[in-house]
Fold this protein.
Amino acid sequence: MVSPLDRKLLRDLWRMKTQALAIGLVVAVGVLLLVMMSGLVESLDETRRTYYERYRLADVFAPVVRAPDRVLDQLAELEGVSAVEGRIAGGALIEMPDSQLPVQARAVSLPDFGEPRLNAVYLSAGRWIDQSRTNEILLLKSFADAHGLEPGDRLSATMHGARRSFDIVGIAQSPEFLYTTAPGELVPDDSRFGVIWMSRTSMEAAYDLDGAFNEALLDIGRETDLPSVLAAADRILDAYGAIGAYGLEDQVSNRFVSEEISGLRASSAGVPPIFLAVAAFLLNIVITRLLQAERQQIGLIKAFGYTNAEVTAHYFKLILAIAVGGAVLGCLLGLAAGAGLIGIYVQYYKFPFLVFEIDPASFIFAFSASVGAAAFGGLFALRQVFSLTPAVAMRPPTPPDYRGFNRFGTMLTNLLDQPTRMVMRRLVRNPGRSIGAIAGVSAGMALSAGMLSVLAGFDETVETSFSVIDRSDMSVSFVEPLPDRALHALANMDGVIEVEATRTVAVILRNGVHEYRGGIYGVTTNARLFRAVDANGETLHLRGDGIVIAPALADILDVEVGDFLLGDVREGRRPQLNLVVTGIAETLMGAPTYMELSALNRALGEQNRVSGAYLRIDPGFRDQIYAALDAMPIIAGVSIKQDARDAFQRMMDQGAGAMRFVMAAIAALITFGIVYNTARIAYAESAHELASLRVIGFSKGEAAYVLLGELGIIVLISLPLGAFLGYGLSYAIAEGFSTDLYQIPAHFSPESLGLAGLAVLAASVFSGWMVKRDSDNADLVSALKSRE
Amino acid sequence: MTQDAFKTRALTKVYGSGETAVHALRGVDLDIPEGEFVVLLGPSGSGKSTLLNILGGLDRASAGEASFQDQELTAMSDRQLTRYRRDHVGFVFQFYNLMPSLTARENVELVTEVAKNPMDTDAALGLVGLSDRASHFPSELSGGEQQRVAIARAIAKNPTVLFCDEPTGALDSTTGRTVLTALKNVNEQLGATVLIVTHAASTAQMADRVIYFADGAIREVVQNSKKLEPSEIEW
């Protein structure tokens, strides 16, 4: 049997359904975002972990030039090492019929007997290779998909200078190659880098490594100290041309995926709490207003003998009903949206399966945070119930007190007509309410402005990286560092307008415990095509032996201008360099280090060496140039800038960066929700007065002026305030979206500000129109009969 | 012979439809001469407030005709009704309906700013005896004072008709008499037609004409030969 109070509750809810729905939806969106993001992050994290575990991804990668297989036994005896695998891996160039330039690839050996102990491969189509046939290969799925290759197709590749033809028998996936990046490039691109798996026997033959390996993989126990294993492995392998063992966290593909997931995690932590706080605030306002309207009923219920606690509980249930309804809806929608998004992300990250993981804690947190916030807001308002005596409640309410407003500027008030005075006094009389409304709309404006400026920041990242820093049309890399006269061959090609030398050196930079595995870019003194630039996009002239580093790198290594870094060169004679940081360059992609080219060569003890070049070309000669480059044996790879730019844009639009669109949509939704609720509440509070004005003879428009004037002033105050808040917020959001791979600048452009302002204004006009419609259609008689 | 302020023929108002329909007015025929002080009496739900709302331009009839000075109220648009209320009609309600954010004077000015031929604000407040309370906000006034501000606001436009729905319903006898005196002054000094809806049968003693309502129809119309002063009325 439903008690009469509960029946009243249900009818009250029904009566205020529009308002309840609007508030419930704001709560729901906050919860949705929280549940969706946390489900997404947890699932991706868990899927990645399971994938790594199931396919035995190694913890340590130790490349060498050539080491005999027996060295593996030495590695296996190291303390903490639980499994060892030796394999052969090498660079290759694949001839693609759909591309004029060969595509860079990596060939990896599979054991002749059984599965690899480490870095196993998932066969997604076709069959395993027959070890007795040396021309059979497995091809990486993402690359095969990008070029429409299937089992049964043939492919020709150049390995170690020899061109061979292969049969694709299977399509494979591997946790080692979730992201594939051509050497020397930052941006992963499925179509421009391939992976081939083939038998150990044929790899030994192709790379001239009979009975030897050139990469050791190690699995270590959970408790094992990684640095000591790396150091021990380096000691053992040093004699065999060790380039330096590195852990999984420095493995390129893993670094990308980890960065992306932590980017998602960071952006999931910041925004939802703002939404929930706004929802709690709205609930507080509505409940306060509702209680005022219910004074008489509260008095009546009390007069019947209900206790304060019972009356409070009754209204508390109303608050809970709205909050819980919103939270449950948010959980369900969040689950659905999360599941949908995870599907997209699983494809994007190329996981062959999905471990759907919803952390119950996220539900509990989202649920209790939203309901708790609403309850807190509501309880604040419910304090009034206690102070109401039945007798007071039964009398008509005393009009709100406006004493003291007579004094405020007689001069000023004399200039205003009565409706405008009403607007001003209503705003000033209850500053808490006005400030609350302004805070709410400002929060909406800030959210929209912040998100829009982050969207603009993404564009700036692309623009800075591909138009300001890199002004070339293409870049080429040589098979090995060459004397700089090799550039003449490039410069003499028809259609090549400008050639600029570069030298990239693999290096581990260290500052105390901080270390970063990257490269030093040797840049010519008067670089024009690929430059280090300052914050204004002006060329930063490199001088002397110092290095100029990216801000991201300065953070990672915790250094400032004037500090020294230890540079552990990982190629050639592998010298150790003492490098002084002479400047910080503006970069938004990667964490590069720049050094003047001849200074770099001096430090390496090699004169006039270049490892590649940037080219500016006449577009009319493009095909001719491609053909010429393809025929040059010194060219290891060619990178077309537009391709790289497209790939970069794609990565930002589909990876963690894609979340920016979802968040922008939700920010717009929230902004509208706040403005609409503010208008609704203002209308509900003044419906009675508006009806009185209409009765006196005010037209619909004149009466609505009192309501919309108030809303208008709130919005006008909120716009600059919200812009200011948005400025701060954009830094926080941009920080959340920045990854190791790219940084998003908090770019607070007038455009995003204007657009956010327009969005808030549009929401205001629409909300104003909605409540004016209600005000116009209000039944004057019943509005006057119901007492405030 | 004075002109009729209001004339209704077969005026009908039905709320809802089908089985749940409520007939608030069942064909009312009525003539109210200009300048009269008229009291509508009857139990709750007898239709007197409905009639007042239709004549005041707040509600629309379901059928029949109602006219004000030969203008067909039942044929007016929303805009015309607003115009009618603005130019001719003053309202006084049981619960005052003052703007809490405006002082007594400003509440009156609310009307004088938009009216065609308003009286002086202070004169209106003087008529209801509130000249000295003009700069007080509603929260600083007693119930009777608030109601008198409402009357001042209603009369300040020099209305042709003044509609009062239970104007003394929330007041004690002393305050109630003050309010009724104010209404009588308006009727006599400004010549406005006054229509009062009330439960209080005693109010009828000061009227020119008393209309008894029952069950959505007029039961009886009585013309008082002798009108009492508000102070003489038994409360």
